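ugh ok fine here u go
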Amino acid sequence: MKSVIVSLSKGESVSLPCTMYEPLSVLQRSAELFEFRSCLDKAIEYKDPLNRIAFVAGFAVSSFAYTTHRLKTNFNPILGETFEYIDKRSGSVVKVFAEQLSHHPPLTALHAETKDWKLYQNSNAGETKMQGTGLLLDTKARTYIEFSDSDHKYFITSPVSKIHNLLIGDPWLEHFGELVVTNLTTGDTATLKFVESGLFGGAQTKIGGFVKDKNGKKMHQDGG
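structure:
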């Protein structure tokens, strides 16, 4: 097989060479989300919800740490395909289970847990759109996190991504828009804005935002 047909929105499609793909499935790639799970392990130490949500936001941002350097996409698993992974390298043991719920359109469900927290996530191909020589992608990923010592539930939404120079030039990837963490129990939020680069690059990988209480008062500032 030399090429893969990728379906876009509104019935559009584009043929991509197999060399643009990593030898990994989407399910395998999803387990990389827990490379920096230490943020969640640290969050359990803080009982104050405003401090805890800051660490949850740190964990959410960490999943984008290396994505800008990995331009190759991953193969779409077949319907019903699963992937299980247990990570014992450090801290608490993490058990991960991912399943492909739909092949087309792609829909993936992920569950992970330790003795201190649980995470649920679903993501799909979302909206894809060609913009010039680039591809805009909104995975519509939705993530929920619960901690064992409280009934608080955290809801995370992700920014959009864009692959620049997909057809011509040197391709590069960026994320822009807002990543929002919401404590569904208290109403506290942590909002981090991924700054979109300009015409010639500029502010790539720059983020900043605030932790706010339920009344919208800024309690912590984050950035990097």
